[in-house]
Amino acid sequence: MSPNPVIPDSAVSRLATYLRVLRDPRVEGRQHVSSAYIGDRAGVSPDQVRKDLSHFGEVGRPGVGYDLEHLIGHLARIMRLDRVQTAVLVGAGNLGSALVQYTGFGQRGFRIAAVFDIDPQRVGTNLGEVVVEHVDRLAQRVEELGATIGIIAVPRWACQTVADAMASSGLRAILNFAPAKIEAPEGVNVRSVDLARELECLAYYLPG
Questions:
Q1: Does CATH number 3.40.50.720 belong to domain 85-198?
Q2: Across residues 71-91, what is the average pLDDT?
């Protein structure tokens, strides 16, 4: 498969939303789906849907729309979701434990295959079907597992060190749950989720 064209992060996010719309049980039984249908459920205009998909040569038929199964397969390949993506997680505290045991990742094609920590009281314990290992084994296990994604669920003070270790181990995609900005080398994509910040933003919209 040829490399994907360079598109804005916002467009990548929309592609993921389109794929979720197309996989919704309510679409089952359809053979074709229109850009208007996708856009309505994704919260964007039909023109935006057509523009996003045209980056990858996907063009619907006027009056008919897009072949549903073909479009699902095409988007899955674009998003690298036509295969299982193996992830490793560092931080076996409350948040890390919850992430490991969340079944939704597996349903979307992601597998957290290894968990690491430095706390001797956590190393060697079980989180679901995974045994917590010492973080010193990160690089070795990334290679053994063929892992592609690293997940950070450690305190703020440790997140940069963990990110550096992940990048050095060959991981090129990092999801960061620590409430701090991470500096990553070129070629390593980092996405951060600050749960406390999101709650603070929601609080703004609460009635006084």
A1: yes
A2: 93
